[in-house]
Specification:
Layout: E1 16-17, H1 24-27, E2 34-36, H2 43-47, E3 56-57, E4 60-63, E5 69-71, E6 76-84, E7 91-99, E8 105-111, E9 126-127, E10 132-135, E11 148-154, E12 166-167, H3 172-178, H4 183-186
Length: 190
C-alpha cells in the first residue's frame, strides 16, 4: 500500500467517534483527539445547521486541539483559499491539487482551519508532502465546530473554495464517486 504523510499527526490509541447520535459538542470536547468517519449518517449533527436532507458525511474529521498543525499529504499546489463563514460551514478553507503516486490528480479540501492558515497562500503556490499548510481552528473561527480539520477529496476541481461536506441519501452513490474515501491517502485510520 502506498503511504502518504499524515494530514494531522494523531497520538496513538485515539478514539473513533460515533457521530450518528447527537451533535458534536455533546460527543467531542475541544481538546480531544479522535476521528470522525466518512460516509456516516449524521442526521442529528447537521439538523442544527439546517442542511435539510444532506446528512451523510463526505470527509474524514481529524479532531485535535486548536492550533494543531495540518500537513499536506503529498506534493502539490494551492488551488484556492477562502472563508466559508456561515454557521456550520468550514470557516477558513484551503483546497489543494495533488498528484497521487499512480499519477491521478486529486483535489483536497482542508477545512475548519485557523484564520492565520490563509496568510500568504496564493493559487499555484507549491507545497511539499509533510509541509505544515494550516492549523486547526478554534470554534469561533472554524464555522462553530469543536476543534478539528475536515479533510475531503474530490475527483474534479471545485469552482469555488468549497465542497459539499454532506450528501442526501438519494444522491449518495454519485457523491461517493465524486468525493472518494479519504482513506485513499490517509490510510487505515479507522
Amino acid at each position: 500500500m502506498t503511504t502518504y504523510h499524515p494530514v494531522v499527526e494523531l497520538p496513538e490509541n485515539y478514539p473513533i467517534f460515533d457521530l450518528r447520535r447527537g451533535t458534536i459538542p455533546e460527543v467531542v470536547g475541544d481538546r480531544e483527539w479522535g476521528v470522525g468517519l466518512y460516509n456516516e449518517l449524521r442526521e442529528d449533527v447537521y439538523s442544527q445547521f439546517y442542511h435539510g436532507d444532506r446528512i451523510i458525511h463526505l470527509g474524514v474529521d481529524l479532531f485535535g486541539p486548536a492550533g494543531t498543525p495540518v500537513h499536506a499529504f503529498a506534493d502539490g499546489e494551492i488551488l484556492m483559499t477562502g472563508i466559508n463563514d456561515k454557521a456550520g460551514d468550514y470557516g477558513p478553507t484551503i483546497i489543494c491539487k495533488h498528484r497521487l503516486h499512480d499519477g491521478t490528480i486529486i483535489y483536497a479540501l482542508y477545512g475548519h482551519l485557523a484564520t492565520k492558515s490563509l496568510a500568504g497562500k496564493v493559487p499555484g503556490q507549491a507545497i511539499k508532502a509533510g509541509e505544515i499548510i494550516a492549523w486547526i481552528g478554534k470554534t469561533h473561527e472554524n464555522g462553530g465546530w469543536n476543534s478539528h480539520a475536515h479533510f475531503q477529496l474530490a475527483t474534479e476541481p471545485p469552482e469555488v473554495c468549497d465542497m459539499p461536506g454532506t450528501a442526501a441519501p438519494g444522491q449518495l452513490e454519485s457523491a461517493l464517486k465524486r468525493y472518494p474515501d479519504p482513506r485513499t491517502v490517509l490510510g487505515p485510520i479507522f
